[in-house]
Design a protein that fits this description.
This protein is an all-alpha fold and 194 residues long. The protein has eight helices and no strands. Helix 1 (2-25) packs antiparallel against helix 2 (32-44), helix 1 (2-25) crosses helix 4 (78-110) and helix 6 (132-152) crosses helix 7 (162-168). The chain starts with a helix and ends with a helix.
Length: 194
């Protein structure tokens, strides 16, 4: 948990400071460098890219769970399963980092770094307004990405833990229906986005 907190402070702090700097130079937006850096904060990340990383990670997890199960139970295709787990972990890690930056930028806009930055954040992040509730919801969802990523592939032990260990230790008669239901739900949510 300490690593989660320090990573949040790192990425949210980076986003917060960048938003404050961009807001400070926004008053000189007619100067090319000021417009460039102000636009960079709003174009660098976005809610849709965060959703794309999250969905891609979840779909990759769904597609690779049978292989991870085989590697765990029968020592088949262990090398391939470990590589897939690292790739899935990277999707969740990059998604978490993006989310941390968004949280920092939204926090800066919550304290009104500049009215123009708040307007651009509203357009970029698809929120009707920058509020404490939207930031709190993003923190909860982003922490879920962290937990799933760490349970798929823990960089320290290079093993899986948490939710993935819980799922893989279940007998097949419970695992298969749960897997089919979870995968179907992930696919429905993914393809019904508009």
């Amino acid at each position: 948990m300490r690593h989660l907190g320090s990573t949040y402070i790192n990425w949210a702090g980076t986003g917060f400071i960048c938003a404050l700097i961009a807001g400070a130079i926004d008053q000189n937006s007619d100067v090319p460098y000021a417009a460039y850096y102000t636009g960079a904060v709003n174009e660098a990340i976005g809610f849709r890219f965060w959703v794309l990383l999250s969905v891609a990670g979840l779909l990759l997890l769904c597609a690779s769970l049978p292989l991870i199960y085989l590697a765990h139970r029968y020592n088949r295709a262990v090398t391939l399963a470990n590589r897939l787990r690292r790739v899935i972990y990277m999707f969740f890690l990059v998604g978490f980092d993006e989310g941390g930056l968004m949280i920092g930028i939204l926090l800066a806009n919550l304290v009104h770094a500049s009215d123009k930055a708040a307007l651009l954040a509203t357009k970029s992040f698809l929120f009707s307004g920058v509020s404490f509730f939207s930031i709190l919801l993003l923190i909860v969802l982003n922490s879920g990405l962290w937990l799933i990523g760490e349970s798929v592939y823990n960089p320290g032990s290079k093993n899986f833990s948490g939710v993935v260990r819980f799922v893989l230790d279940k007998p097949l008669k419970f695992l298969v229906p749960g897997y089919v239901l979870f995968t179907a739900l992930a696919l429905v949510i993914t393809f019904n986005r508009q």
